[in-house]
Amino acid sequence: MKIETFVCNPIMENTFVVYDETKQCIIIDPGCFNDAEFSKIDDFIKANDLEVVKIVNTHSHFDHIMGIQKCRSAYNVKWEAHSGDNSLIENAPNQGKMFGIPMQEVALPDIELNEGESIEFGNTKLSIFHVPGHSNGSICLYHQESKQIIVGDVLFKSSIGRTDLPGGNYELLISGIKNKLFQLPDDVLVYPGHGGTTSIGEEKISNPFLQ
User: Fold this and answer.
1) How do 139-143 and 13-19 pair as beta strands?
2) Taking Cα atoms as reference points, which of 104, 176, 98 lies closest to residue 137?
């Protein structure tokens, strides 16, 4: 499984195109803010002859869903996310205003995701972990074979997701990271929703929030 990262919108959010040898791919957290950002993603998909089969979100804060409507329309695919964040989606335009960023309305996801289920495309299966605390509907997507996990804003390099936004809960977030993510092997590569990659082992040792 391969992961290509695109940094999008004024919040510098990571959008991922995830694909395998079958050429099927999924777009995770499409935060493309304008046509230029969408074109970079679309150009990569076309250049690699990829077929987009679904859109998936780790969570639904406004900066992670800015490109939902554009991608839904362009690729004629369904959007999958945890229903715990539906209220965030409904309030997305107001979220944007708080940060001085225009944000269009976004229709709710087509398919609800839950812990214990999996995301499947091509020859790839991503296991779903529900790790609330940054938002009610935050999930992490783990590929066991390649030891890679896409965590949204649950965990960052030397930091954790904000818990002062609607749906935030510091104790719940810390518990979820320690009891779910930190049970994975130390060499699992972590792809956060902002910033660079890290590893489970590195965060166990150096993350000041998790000592």
Assistant:
1) unpaired
2) 176
Q: Would you state the structure tokens that stand for residue 84, as one six-digit string? A: 């715990």
Task: Print pLDDT tens along the chain (211 aa).
Answer: 999 999 999 999 999 999 999 999 999 999 999 999 999 999 999 999 999 999 999 999 999 999 999 999 999 999 999 999 999 999 999 988 888 998 889 999 999 999 999 999 999 999 999 999 999 999 999 999 999 999 999 999 999 999 998 889 999 999 999 999 999 999 999 999 999 999 999 999 999 999 9
SS3 category, 26: strand
Distance CA 85, CA 120 (A): 22
Scanning 48-198, the segments in alpha helix (DSSP H) are 68-75, 86-90, 92-98, 170-179
Residue 137 tokens read as 């509907």
Q: How many residues does the chain have?
A: 211
Paired with 13 in beta bridges are 8
Is 136 strand, coil or helix? coil
Give me the helix-helix angle, 68-75 and 35-47, nearest 10°.
Answer: 40
Closest CA to 114 of 149, 142, 81: 81
- Residues 129, 165, 59: CA angle, nearest 5 degrees: 30
State the pTM of this model. Answer: 0.97
